[in-house]
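Marked as duplicate of an earlier ticket. Keeping the data here for the record.
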Amino acid sequence: MADDNLKVPLIGLNTTSNTSYTQPMSINLSTEANNGSKAVEILNKIRISSSISERLTKRKQLTKRRRLVSDIMCLVGLLGVCLMIIENELAFHNTGEYQLRFIIKLIITVTTFLLIVLVFYYHSVDIRLYAVNNSIDDWKVSLTPSKVLAIIGEAFICLIQPLPWLPDSYISSSANSSTSTHVPVNVILSIFMFTRVYLVCRCLIYHSTIVTDSSSQSIGFLNRVKFNFKFILKAYLTQHPVLSLAVILFTIFLIASWCLRAVDYNSTKDGQLAFLDAMYLFMLSLTSLGYGDLIPSTNWGR
């Protein structure tokens, strides 16, 4: 009896424990399954948010790097243009500083080589930034044929410079053979160096408040607006029409006047056209007045 009394509570305890714990175990399994699915969703959200934060961080770094490279390219390009003007002015005044002119041409060559390297590096950063903005894993997908042509064209524009090893060979540019009016090859190459002004335009884009403002970027991204130079120029012309037009026209006036001075040479008169005379002649030609007191001496000047 003692053994039976001892067995009853153990059996009852075991049976009650089995019956009482059978249903909660099934509830716990379903609860764990629900919790597991929620945990998976939470992990997916964490992964998505972490990937988005990584993309935003990488985008910010690449944007700063692209702007910095653009600034360096602008400085290097303008340095080459300034050295080109100095070298040509020494040649126009016949100072005889051939060694100094050769050294300046070598420095221009070094800056040109550096500018070419910066062009390729800039576009590599720009391609990676495009891949990050469009969630592209492989940046090679962003390298389209049009992009390749743009890189080659920009490198070719930056490659133009006066050649230091080129002798003083001249191209005849006068219709009258009796006058020895010629334009040096390096002067022609120097004029085409002014195409580097596009670097200033690109620098203005990245330093414009329209591009640097986060709200403007968000609105532009939602409306698929490209913040290129055309858009920035329209914005500046709308906000500051007088100042923008004055800066553009004055820049064109100075560059065109110096180019006219560079290509106009008359050996029978005063030699190279003076800069003030070139400015005066350019204004007469632009306004189509033509008093006749100054006329170009070369076909390039005409």
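See parent ticket for discussion. The longest helix spans residues 2-92.
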